[in-house]
Write a structure and sequence with these properties.
Layout (H helix, E strand, L loop, with lengths): L1 H36 L11 E7 L7 H7 L7 E8 L5 H9 L5 E6 L7 H11 L5 E4 L4 E2 L4 H7 L6 E5 L2 E4 L5 H22 L11 E4 H6 L12 H12 L3 E4 L7 E4 L4 H16 L4 H19 L12 H21 L9 H21 L5 E2 L2 E2 L1
Parallel strand pairs: 1-2, 1-4, 2-3, 6-9, 7-10
Antiparallel strand pairs: 4-8, 5-10, 6-8, 11-12
Helix pairs in contact: 1-6, 1-11, 6-11, 9-12, 10-11, 10-12, 11-12
Subcellular location: Cell membrane
Organism: Leadbettera azotonutricia (strain ATCC BAA-888 / DSM 13862 / ZAS-9) (Treponema azotonutricium)
GO molecular function: glycosyltransferase activity
């Protein structure tokens, strides 16, 4: 009985303690980001930036990036689109957009032998770039006005090698599914920012990421990143683990990148499984350990629920999960509410569903289910 009590209450204390530590890291990162946003010394600092945008069959989703690129007024920027073997009209649309824009260019790939096709395509863009910094986004994203300058501010400290920014989804309709996509994206970045604040950055959204060229060179270049279904997370982990540069998280509304949501559960599960597997099977040991521990403990708490009628004494396991998810929800809405749908009490259902969904992804990930990316198994 003593060992059983130690297990059930120890689990709850460890799980809640872990989330308390993440909330502390999130607060520290929020304070750092606020100082970077309003640093007077960074206002007139204008290093050259190369914005790299990979494209693969995005002809129906590029209107947002075209529109928002027109709002960028950063004087020292070049823009490189990489068309990765698109079979639709992506290349033609980009070419039309680039007319009379000398700072923008298009690279077209006819083959891509990379394990991770996106990583290979991005490496081709980096090869021909001239910026001191690389800033990445995707063709289906919409970036805020002044985004380039805002991300550059986060790099004013020369010890910072990379800054990860939030990517939030625009609701594509009414109902639970569309709201959940928006909420889930915010929760994921909240976890990323919290771990970054604790010095354990192990991920990031590659469609809102800025890198110092020197930090990439310090780890052997982009193609030195070990094979992973999430090349952006593997890159952030490698810079943290294999260089003297720091990783920071950008949190302010001036860097909220918006992307379109998936159309149905099948595509959404495939997308989130890729991210989850990227953490569970990351080439970086500390990322595997931290992310795996978090996902396994969440799963233990959720899997205990069906047994509550038979073993009511295991209540601390699910209670710890619900308590921690409540704190996560408050933090997510506090940080990103300005860019999330205004749905009020509907977020209660989201916070209850999130640990169940994370448990589902973790189980199928450990069962060897592999996601697809752009039609290829990862």
């Amino acid at each position: 009985m003593l060992l059983y009590n130690i297990f059930r209450f120890g689990f709850a204390l460890v799980f809640v303690g872990l989330h308390a530590a993440l909330m502390a890291g999130l607060y520290m990162e929020w304070k750092r980001d606020k100082r970077a946003r309003f640093n007077p010394a960074a206002v007139s600092w204008m290093p050259k930036v190369t914005v790299i945008i990979p494209v693969h069959n995005e002809s129906s989703r590029m209107e947002g990036i075209f529109r928002s690129l027109e709002t960028q007024d950063y004087p020292e920027a070049e823009f490189i689109f990489i068309d990765d073997r698109s079979s639709d009209e992506s290349a033609q649309l980009i070419s039309a957009f680039l007319k009379n824009k000398p700072s923008m260019r298009l690279i077209s790939l006819t083959e891509n032998p990379g394990f991770n096709h996106k990583q290979f395509a991005l490496a081709r863009g980096i090869e021909v770039s001239s910026g001191e910094f690389f800033l990445f986004t995707d063709a289906d994203c919409e970036i805020p006005q002044g985004w380039i300058a805002a991300m550059v501010k986060r790099m004013a400290d020369k010890k910072v090698g990379a800054a990860i920014g939030p990517v939030l989804k625009r609701s594509g309709g009414q109902g639970f599914f569309h709201l959940y996509q928006c909420f889930e994206h915010g929760v994921r970045f909240m976890y990323l920012a919290g771990s970054t604040g604790l010095g354990a950055a192990g991920g990031g959204f590659g469609n809102n990421l800025i890198l110092r060229r020197a930090s990439l060179e310090a780890v052997g270049g982009y193609e030195s990143i070990p094979p992973s279904p999430t090349e952006d997370a593997a890159l952030v982990s490698r810079i943290r683990a294999c260089s003297d540069f720091q990783i920071r998280a950008a949190l302010g509304p001036d860097v909220h990148v918006i992307t379109k949501g998936e159309l149905g559960w099948k595509d959404f599960i495939n997308q989130t499984l890729r991210w989850n597997n990227g953490g569970l099977f990351s080439p970086d040991f500390s990322t595997r350990l931290n992310f795996g521990f978090l996902m396994v403990t969440i799963s233990m708490g959720i899997l205990a629920i069906p047994f509550l009628p038979f073993f009511p004494s295991i209540w601390p396991l699910p209670a710890a999960v619900i308590l921690s998810m409540t704190a996560d929800t408050i933090a997510t809405l506090g940080l990103f509410g300005v860019s999330l749908p205004k749905k009020g009490p509907a977020y209660i259902l989201q916070l209850l569903f999130t640990p169940v969904y994370f448990t589902f992804l973790t189980i199928i990930g450990f069962c060897g289910i592999k996601p697809e990316w752009k039609g290829s198994k990862m």
